[in-house]
Each structure stands twice: as C-alpha cells, then as structure tokens.
Amino acid sequence: MLKKIMLGGIAALALAACGNEGGNSAAGSASAPAQEQAGSLLDRINNQGTIIVGTEGTYAPFTYHDDAGKLTGYDVEVTRAVAEKLGVKVDFKETQWDAMLAGLKAGRFDLVANQVSLTTPERQATFDKSAEYSYSGPMAVNRKEDDRIKTLADVKGLSSAQSLSSNYGEMAEKAGAKIVPVDGMAQALALVQQSRADFTFNDSLALLDYLKKTPDSGLKTAWTAGADQKLGSGFIANKGNDEALAKISGAVEELRADGTLKQLGEQFFGEDVSVK
What we know:
Layout: E1 24-25, H1 41-46, E2 50-55, E3 64-65, E4 71-72, H2 74-86, E5 89-94, H3 97-105, E6 111-116, H4 121-126, E7 127-129, E8 134-136, E9 138-143, E10 159-162, H5 167-174, E11 178-181, H6 185-193, E12 199-203, H7 204-213, E13 219-224, E14 231-238, H8 242-257, H9 260-269
Parallel strand pairs: 1-5, 2-5, 2-6, 10-11
Antiparallel strand pairs: 3-4, 6-14, 7-14, 8-14, 9-12, 9-13
C-alpha cells in the first residue's frame, strides 16, 4: 500500500475534525455503516445515491485540509471527479490509517481512497482495486547532516519511524531497520527531526511535497527507488463488488482520457502522476 504512509503542507499534526462539507464528516462521527444503507454499492451508483469513502485527512498532498479547513488533496479531488462522472454524491469519513482497511472490511465505508496499492497477499485476498489513478515509489528521508544512507542496504540496523501496518513499515522491517511505531507521516517526520528515529520511508510524492513546502525542515532525501519500483494506487473495495468497481474504473479511465487526472497531478505535484 502506498501509504501509503504524512505531511507536505500539513496544517496540523493531529487528525482534523470537520463538519459536513459537500459530504465531508469528521472522524468518529455517527453514521450508519455503508452496508446498512439502502442497497449495495452498485445500487447506490446505479441509483445516483451517496457512496461513503474512507480517507485519512492528514496525508498531504493526497488527503488533507487546506488553510480554510476544507478536505482536499489529489485522492480527494480524484474521488470527487469520479463521483461527478458517476452522478453520485460522496461522503468522506476521516479515520486513522491503521483503522482504515478494518473499517472497510467491517462495512463502515464503501471505498477507501488513500494511496492504496494492495501489495500484500493478505490484502489481495480481502479487497479489490479499481483502475489506478496515480503511480509513485518509496523514498527515505533523514536529517541533512546524516550521510549514512546512500543505498537501500544502508538502512540495516538504523531506526525507522513507521506506521506498523503500512507497506513502508513492512519495507523497513524487510531491510533490517528497527521500527519506531508512529500513527502517520507527520509524527514520523517529527521523530526524525528530533533524532528519535534515523529515517522514515514514505511515498516519494508526499515527501517531495513536504520538502518543497518546508525547506527549513532540516531533512533531506536520503534514497529514492528506481522507476521499476513504482506502484499504482486506486480505489479499494471489499471483494464482491466487481460490477461497481468496473463502473468506477470506467470513470477513472474517462478522467485519464479527458485530461482531468493530468490536470490534478499538475495541480498537486507539478506533473502528471497518473502515468508510470
């Protein structure tokens, strides 16, 4: 999962709470599970109803709150564009990363939009993914004065601030790093700045966005994966939603063809991230 696991213009280090804004709602707010609402996900799409989408809200530039408090970001705006293509409304539910897929499995969300790539067999056995709307790869950042990391092998024995259930936590463990558990990217970067962790792995786009927007962070790029390691992220749904995902994938491909994905990529990253 590309968290897929986060900052880059993050306005707060804690989960933001917001009222309903075009279908936004705060984490922990009361709502009926998606599976208890009228009909299936396919029914709600066909009947132009409301779909519930789980996202973090603290993972810039993919899902975060702008200076006015509005939920935005690449994944959020792609979701809104897909919803417009399908003629449905979207209700975003913000939650911590570690609880997101569990919430999807439990039926609290119809979809997850949070830079998920479904890389593990366990997740692939439980969830399905739509057509991919972005591609990126892993990157490591550390303190500017620390020159110990030049290759992936150099992280062995170093401490890495990571969310335990993320792809990047798995990557750090596999590379032989010692894991310092965190809730998300914002906390991970803070621990590296404070010398409480040596480095952190995360998505290259999120980290580059952060480094660009906070040039005085004291952090730098330590290592970046090659192009052959790029993964694609899409909307994630529980197994058994093939027809609904086909419609969602069709909308994603329409947005790729009409230039919407390119435009959103340039808006948030300065380049089209919907192609490898």
